[in-house]
Each structure stands twice: as structure tokens, then as C-alpha cells.
Write a structure and sequence with these properties.
Elements lengths: L5 H8 L2 H21 L5 E2 L2 E3 L9 E4 L6 E6 L6 E10 L11 E8 L4 E2 L5 E6 L2 E9 L3 E10 L4 E10 L1
Parallel strand pairs: 2-11
Antiparallel strand pairs: 1-2, 3-4, 4-5, 5-9, 6-7, 6-10, 8-9, 10-11
């Protein structure tokens, strides 16, 4: 009778590709949990929005509560190039935040990769920005991060979208 150790049993019943997929899934999950932090309400320090939001504007205060972010897709979101209108305002007064640089990035948190393109940002009126060239390269959960930086202020917010 041949006896096998537990590790021999496991390795003989699962293929190398299956073990790799399992390991990659665990790494992606651990990365997402690490970014979410202890409360899970913020991702990388940014206020995090729920999935969807493609049906009109979503608004929320940034992670520090200094700036309110209102984000609206300019057309239905889909795989490929997308565009957004972003309005930055002071919470409470709703006055536009002027003289700010808006930085935008998009990533697929479950896959651990960023968009293949650099978003373009143009201020079209005080406190209102048009963000173009936001590329979602495949279906799945995508996150768009907005970081507003000025001389005396900075804040950030993230919005998630399920691309089908």
C-alpha cells in the first residue's frame, strides 16, 4: 500500500493553472481588503461610492469633507472610452470650488490594474470639469478616483461602476 502525504494529495488533484488562479484570487481579495481599510468605507483614503450611478449625477463629500464631488457620466457607460462631468463645490454653500487642479485615475480593483489611457481634464466653467478619455478596457467593476488639489485644500473621492 502506498501512502501519500496531504500535500501530495492536494497537488495531484488540482492542476497548476487552478492553483495559480486560486492564488491570484486570494491576492486580489487581500489587496482590495487592504485598500478598504478597517472600516471598508474608504479606499485608499478616498470616499467610496456605490456601484452604478450611470443614470444621472452622484454626489458625496470627499474623504476629508472639505469638497463635495458631483459626478455624472456624459453618456451611458460602456466598455471603451467614457466621459464625465464633475462639479466641485463647498459643502453647505454649494458655491463652486475655483482654482483647483483635478486629477483623475481609473482602475479595476479586483484585477489590480489601471486603465490603459490617461484621462483628460478640462475646466469648462468655474468648478465644473469635463473628464474625457476614461477607458474601461473590459467588463467588470471599475473605480474612478478624483483628487482635487489647491494651494490650501485637497480632497478626494472615488466612484465605482459596474461595466457590462
Amino acid at each position: 500500500m502506498i501512502e501519500r502525504s496531504e500535500s501530495q494529495d492536494r497537488s495531484s488533484t488540482s492542476s497548476p493553472s487552478r492553483r495559480r488562479r486560486g492564488a491570484l484570487g486570494r491576492v486580489a481579495l487581500l489587496g482590495a481588503l487592504a485598500l478598504a481599510g478597517p472600516g471598508g468605507a474608504a479606499l485608499g483614503g478616498a470616499a467610496l461610492g456605490g456601484c452604478g450611478g450611470a443614470e444621472g449625477p452622484e454626489e458625496r463629500e470627499g474623504a476629508t469633507g472639505v469638497i463635495a464631488f458631483e459626478v455624472e457620466p456624459l453618456r451611458p457607460l460602456a466598455e471603451g472610452e467614457n466621459a464625465f462631468r464633475v462639479r466641485l463645490s463647498w459643502p453647505g454653500s454649494n458655491d463652486p470650488v475655483e482654482g483647483i487642479a483635478l486629477r483623475v485615475s481609473s482602475l479595476m480593483p479586483t484585477m489590480g490594474h489601471a486603465s490603459p489611457a490617461e484621462p483628460r481634464v478640462e475646466e469648462v466653467e468655474p468648478g465644473v470639469y469635463e473628464v474625457t478619455n476614461v477607458v474601461f478596457s473590459m467588463p467588470g467593476l471599475w473605480e474612478v478616483r478624483y483628487r482635487a488639489v489647491g494651494a490650501d485644500v485637497s480632497d478626494e473621492a472615488a466612484f465605482q461602476y459596474e461595466i457590462r
